[in-house]
Amino acid sequence: MSYSGLSLLGHAITGNRHWPAIIAAPDMRATYDIVIVGGGGHGLATAYYLADNHGLSNIAVVEAGWIGGGNTARNTTIVRSDYLLNSSFELKNFALGLWADLSRDLNFNLMYEPRGYVDLAHSDGELEHFTLRANAMRLGGADASILTGDALQARVPELDLSNGKRFPVSGALVQEAGGVVRHDAVAWGFARKASKAGIHILQNCPVTGFDIVKGRLNAVETTRGRISCKQAMISVAGASSHVAGLAGVDLPLNSINVQAFVTEPVKPALDAVVNYNAGLSYVSQTDKGEFVLGGATDGYGSFARRGSFERIEDVLARAMQMFPFLSRLRVMRHWSGTADIPMDGNAIMGPTPIQGLMINGGWGYAGFKATPAVGHQMAELLATGKTPALIAPFALDRFTSGTEQDDAGLGPYPWLH
Ligand SMILES: Cc1cc2nc3c(=O)[nH]c(=O)nc-3n(C[C@H](O)[C@H](O)[C@H](O)COP(=O)(O)OP(=O)(O)OC[C@H]3O[C@@H](n4cnc5c(N)ncnc54)[C@H](O)[C@@H]3O)c2cc1C
């Protein structure tokens, strides 16, 4: 069914008792053309675009847990394209364009809100680097401006710009098209449309192995049995190294914990996403009124989703440097997710050494913003067999050919974000 004001009214009249499930629960087939391993935003977006752009539907999305239980629904919901490296910028900027129309395309309210992303610089040198980045963004067709002093204070009135801080603010790079998107709605919206197109979404069905004969993928093994397929794509975020390892593919990744927090809700007080760069702490306010806070990775490898106290203290202390009023709020929830981070800090997308097996991973704590672009591009690769130009720089073989895509602030230096 299509969501509209009329359908809302119709269901209200009948006591909201007949809303259909948004994702079908079909029996698993023995064979599909394509199996997507991982039902996060990336895997589901790929399924949606395979159906919508390429007319393919003999596809299964195989998810170990439930839809929207992975990093897609653990992130801090920030979308932006303020990257300097061409390859990073172009992919994220393409995604930003897609976010703008996606709610309409999916007939599902993703709550994309371009509130503006305000990236604070803490020295003149850093501000100069931000100016370079802003100019590069403008040349690439994105909006970007540099604000200092009164102009910055007017843009974010709640920001404490007073003197005497340990890390004073010199100015900020502002991207007004940046903002937030409701993260779990992204998983549900893509899943609903893919399911409607006839794609099978199989939840609670972990992939346990790959049947590979003479270097070619034959089938995917799951806890519910074997699925023969022509192609498969691994898109499992924090589990990338483990799942690729089941196929004998060794990925150059570190798996590191990233934490996030929300405070108790209060009235609207902050109309931007603000990022503090002296150590990393970012803050936005949800429509419910809670402040969402995030920061850098824990700095050591772990699959545990607990997180260190040191990082909790660090993120909250820096957030209070920006917005001292936050000290009066209680943190209501705290969680973390496993970020899969390659040493050049950029994603890995494309073929693996196994024929028929593709990988999309290595997104660390920066992949949510790219979700629709990843789905769009990986769908094109799976449907046509040709790597689209936008994702060609992110091929796995860049680590052997020496064409790494170094994004400062990720990889070995996550604190330089
Ligand atoms: C705390 C935190 C904050 C973040 N903040 C931001 C942000 O503000 N902006 C941003 O752009 N990015 C952010 N990120 C990163 C972003 O969340 C991820 O890069 C992105 O969601 C990855 O999408 P995905 O679909 O690949 O991952 P997921 O949603 O994790 O999907 C992968 C799925 O694979 C499944 N899976 C795992 N193993 C198997 C298996 N064996 N078989 C089948 N399925 C399996 C998992 O259950 C999971 O559902 C953040 C991440 C974290 C942890």
From TrEMBL:
Domain of life (superkingdom): Bacteria
Tagged with keyword Nucleotidyltransferase: no
UniProt-recorded name of the protein: FAD-dependent oxidoreductase
Chain segments annotated as transmembrane: none
Keywords: Oxidoreductase, Plasmid
PANTHER family referenced in this protein's UniProt entry, alphabetically: FAD-DEPENDENT OXIDOREDUCTASE DOMAIN-CONTAINING PROTEIN 1, SARCOSINE DEHYDROGENASE-RELATED
Lineage start: Bacteria, Pseudomonadati, Pseudomonadota, Alphaproteobacteria, Rhodobacterales
Domain FAD dependent oxidoreductase: 33-381
